[in-house]
Amino acid sequence: MHEIIRIQSPELIAEIALGGAELKSLHANGKDNVIWQVDETFWNRSAPILFPIVGRLKNNQYEWKSENYQMLQHGFARNQRFEIIEKEDSFAIFQLKSNIQTLSQYPFDFILNIKYELIGNQLLVAYTVVNQSNELLPFSIGGHPGFQLNGKLEEYQLRFPEKFITHNHLIDNGLYTGEKELLSVDKDFNLKTDYFESDAIVFKSPIFNKVTLCRLSNPILTLRCQDWTAVGFWTKKNAPFFCIEPWWGWADDTDASGKLKDKKGLIWLEAGKKKEFQFEIEVY
């Protein structure tokens, strides 16, 4: 689980663990690593993959075909050992197949491939979900990269392509309450600890396709995603990390029925089909 795979290009070096196919480090040559280095005092992950759910299920369970299944927040992929199916200097492809452990929580046959590829000063992260079953495959998927902070959160900004007005979807104990607050977001949005006291800031159907993390107005990295259905921003009080999370799906509402067929934000993939999702991290 702790074995590390290293890829590199003339500009970047990345390290990925077989456990969860989790990104553990990313840095430009001669520069500091931008990925959060795990300190369990704050958070025991660095960049987990969220599959086959994003966020939390109501009561950590769901019903499918009159059977009840238990599944913890963000699903099981982050706790599974992936296999390497292809590797060259600048890229690697990791694979998880449905197995006894996954089927006990999620009664569907699937293949999940994760590709990490270094192109110039960017890391491309691509998720491919393949439906191996003879019925529809319901799932959500997402990234959860945590980025290292070298100073107080208040020294950092999120830089968006333009100023916009949107809704933050409010969360209580990991579930959406149905309440929304209207936010006016400046092009340079100054981060504050107070914003994250209850949980993440979540924008559904984001109108932007990139966001840059800056310190004292100096850009550190940009995360780009063309087709995300939601994006989460998250940290913990006094924690030296900040997460920018590209999602295709989201947690349950507080009034969710608990039936998988009713769950909001799911993708329903046809039998024998595959679907790809990707985002990029550009390092400066």
Task: Explain this structure.
The structure is a single chain. This protein is an all-beta fold. It has one domain: Beta-galactosidase, Chain A, domain 5 (Distorted Sandwich). The protein is built from one helix and 24 strands. It has a nine-stranded antiparallel sheet with strand order 7-8-9-10-24-20-19-14-17, with no helix packed on it. Strands 4, 12, 13, 18, 21 and 22 form a six-stranded antiparallel sheet that branches. A hairpin with a 4-residue loop joins strand 2 and strand 3. The relative contact order is 0.20. The mean pLDDT is 96.
- Structural classification: mainly beta
Radius of gyration: 18 Å
Mean pLDDT: 96
| The CATH architecture | Distorted Sandwich
Low-confidence stretches: none
Strand arrangement in the largest pleated sheet = 7-8-9-10-24-20-19-14-17
The string of secondary-structure elements, in order, is EEEEEEEEHEEEEEEEEEEEEEEEE
Strand content: over 45%
Count of discrete domains: 1
CATH fold type = Beta-galactosidase, Chain A, domain 5
